[in-house]
């Protein structure tokens, strides 16, 4: 089989960013300070999730320091639904991966899967929250606002989702995901969120937006009464800054790595144009015929949620996969499709040839091929010479090529 020649390129995206993250946290807390009542010694739980947010440790420490300076007694608790293998230690381990420990944060970290029922929504849905959060005087939530990998609407992934699914732990995540499938994400959020805000005594939320280079573009403190309105605006801004593939029609997408630290679905479904669930309509673009995934990140701790989005995977992905953690995550999210194991290949060469052999009548050396590190890092990538003449959706700088696609003696795709 003949292979296409590849260019190495750099995409250029808008690059809005916060020049000093710690100062941005201080600025935002000062901006909303008149609306905050923090009594001396108040126990404030800081909710931190499992998403791969570049400056999460820096933002969390800055927030903890400001709360302590105001006389409060802050602690951190994981707010990540069933992630971390659905165990208290596993969720604490996720935080350690991000550099969030008692030593680095200067405050206790309380990890538990125990929950307290706060009430019931008008639809009859029980509302749960982490029992450490329920026992605190106040709660503050930190999360990145971005497009969700399953649900589409005016509210997607952000503060509201963390307050429900993240703080609801396994039981809450399972109940809410089931409700979303029948009633829709926005409706459940608007119904349940007021109960969580009131009963968990939410002080404020700290929203983070990242640009296409994984840099912190904006930090925004949001008061409880403003979350539903402000998060809609933040989501629109986040989508405008999100990275994307440069072409809408691709024969083969080679993904060097997938993982939970990259996206909740292992690969960002908004990037690859595949949702594979019964609640979201498949997008019109991008249209990708075959996806090959080469590896699973170590930070995923074996959770290969999203593996089912691929057509072919390298043996390394399955070897690293923890089936129990993966299945539990996908079942909790009512999305077992994302735990399906694709065709397993023993080498990159075998997988690439299988992809090229199943795209139709296009000759293998003229295939539209794109190679990326992962769906979060799209600034630098490779594409085949068949795409060079096509109009890209972003500005592109050619760094090198076209060069032959090469494999070593073991069939490993060379960089």
In brief:
This protein is an alpha/beta fold and 415 residues long. Helix content is 31%, strand content 22%.
What is the H level of CATH, i.e. the homologous superfamily of the largest domain? LarA, N-terminal domain
Beta strand count: 15
**Compute the gyration radius: what is it?**
22 Å
User: Percent of residues in beta strands?
Assistant: 15-25%
Structural description of this entry:
This protein has 415 residues and is of the alpha/beta class. It folds into 2 domains: 5-13 and 243-404, no CATH class; 36-241, 3-Layer(aba) Sandwich (Rossmann fold), CATH 3.40.50.11440. It contains 13 helices and 15 strands. The protein has helices spanning 21-32, 56-69, 88-97, 102-105, 131-135, 159-166, 169-183, 185-199, 227-241, 269-272, 315-320, 323-332, 348-356; strands at residues 5-12, 43-48, 73-78, 115-120, 126-130, 138-144, 202-210, 216-222, 249-255, 287-293, 312-314, 343-345, 369-372, 380-384, 395-404. The longest helix has 15 residues, at 169-183. The protein is globular. The mean pLDDT is 92.
What key attributes describe this structure?
eight-stranded mixed sheet; 15 strands; alpha/beta; 2 domains; Rossmann fold; 415 residues; five-stranded mixed sheet
Spell out the blueprint of helices and strands.
Layout: E1 5-12, H1 21-32, E2 43-48, H2 56-69, E3 73-78, H3 88-97, H4 102-105, E4 115-120, E5 126-130, H5 131-135, E6 138-144, H6 159-166, H7 169-183, H8 185-199, E7 202-210, E8 216-222, H9 227-241, E9 249-255, H10 269-272, E10 287-293, E11 312-314, H11 315-320, H12 323-332, E12 343-345, H13 348-356, E13 369-372, E14 380-384, E15 395-404
Parallel strand pairs: 2-3, 2-6, 6-7, 9-10, 9-13, 10-11, 11-12
Antiparallel strand pairs: 1-14, 1-15, 4-5, 7-8, 13-14
């Amino acid at each position: 089989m003949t292979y296409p020649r590849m260019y190495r390129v750099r995409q250029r995206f808008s690059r809005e960013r916060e020049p000093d993250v710690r100062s941005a946290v201080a600025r935002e807390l000062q901006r909303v300070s008149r609306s905050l009542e923090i009594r001396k010694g108040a126990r404030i739980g800081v909710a931190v999730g499992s998403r791969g947010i570049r400056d999460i440790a820096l933002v969390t420490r800055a927030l903890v320091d400001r709360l302590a300076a105001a006389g409060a007694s802050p602690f951190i608790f994981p707010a990540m639904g069933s992630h971390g293998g659905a165990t208290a230690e596993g969720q604490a381990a996720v935080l350690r991966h991000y550099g969030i420990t008692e030593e680095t944060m200067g405050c206790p970290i309380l990890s538990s899967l125990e929950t307290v029922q706060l009430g019931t929504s008008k639809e009859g849905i029980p509302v749960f929250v982490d029992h450490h959060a329920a026992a605190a005087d106040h709660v503050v939530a930190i999360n990145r606002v971005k497009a969700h990998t399953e649900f589409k609407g005016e509210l997607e992934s952000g503060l509201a989702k963390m307050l429900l699914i993240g703080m609801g732990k396994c039981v809450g995540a399972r109940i809410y995901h089931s409700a979303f499938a029948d009633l829709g994400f926005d409706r459940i959020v608007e119904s349940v969120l007021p109960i969580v805000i009131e009963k968990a005594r939410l002080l404020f939320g700290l929203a983070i937006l990242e640009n296409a280079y994984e840099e912190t573009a904006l930090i925004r403190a949001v008061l409880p009464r403003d979350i539903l309105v402000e998060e809609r605006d933040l989501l629109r801004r986040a989508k405008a800054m999100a990275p994307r593939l440069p072409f809408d029609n691709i024969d083969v997408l080679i993904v060097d790595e997938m993982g939970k630290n990259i996206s909740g679905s292992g690969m960002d479904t908004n990037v690859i144009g595949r949702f594979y669930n019964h609640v979201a309509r498949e997008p019109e673009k991008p249209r990708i015929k075959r996806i090959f995934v080469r590896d699973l990140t170590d930070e995923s701790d074996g959770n290969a949620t999203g593996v089912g989005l691929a057509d072919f995977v390298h043996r390394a992905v399955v070897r690293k996969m923890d089936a129990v953690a993966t299945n539990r995550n996908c079942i909790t999210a009512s999305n077992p499709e994302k735990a399906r194991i694709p065709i397993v290949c023993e080498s990159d060469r075998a997988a690439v040839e299988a992809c090229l052999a199943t795209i139709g009548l296009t000759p293998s050396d003229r295939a539209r091929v794109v190679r990326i590190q992962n769906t979060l890092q799209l600034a630098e990538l490779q594409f085949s010479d068949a795409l060079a003449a096509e109009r890209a959706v972003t500005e592109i700088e050619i760094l090198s090529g076209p060069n032959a696609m090469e494999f070593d003696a073991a069939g490993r795709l060379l960089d």
